Amino acid sequence: MPRRCHRHDVAGAIRLSADVVALYERCYGAPPWSETPERLRAHPTRLARPLTRPGFTAWTAHDGDRLTS
Predict the structure, then answer these.
(1) Phi and psi at residue 65, in whole multiples of 5°?
(2) CA distances from 38 to 7, 23, 29, 55, 59 (A)
(3) Euclidean distance between the first and final Cα of the chain, in Å?
(4) Which of 13, 14, 48, 49 could bond to 58 as cystine, CB 3.0-4.6 Å?
(5) Residue 29, exposed/middle/buried by CB under 10 A (0-12, 13-18, 19+)?
């Protein structure tokens, strides 16, 4: 199935936040990036900050129902 991109408002981004956090941990928790456990735990807070900005929009790529990097 081809990859699809989706645009999300705040509510849509909140619904995907657990998937985004899990993808971040898979991508950045291992070499070559190897984020520290503290930085990985802080990601949900960093992810939530932009949600308060007026006009917030997020784009995600999906392969079927799976969020991709």
Answers:
(1) -95, 0
(2) 30, 16, 11, 30, 26
(3) 15
(4) 13
(5) middle
The yes-or-no verdict on residue 50 having pLDDT over 70 is: yes
Whose structure tokens read 């079927």? 64
User: How far is residue 63's CA from residue 69's CA, in Å, rounded to a whole number?
Assistant: 10
User: 45, exposed or middle or buried, with CB in 10 Å at 0-12, 13-18, 19+?
Assistant: exposed
Sign of the CA dihedral with 30 first, then 9, 59, and 12 last: positive
CB contact at 8 A, 60 and 23: no
> pLDDT for 4-28, tens place per residue?
999 999 999 999 999 999 999 999 9
Q: Are 35 and 27 in contact (CB under 8 A)?
A: no
Q: What's this model's pTM, rounded to 2 decimal places?
A: 0.81
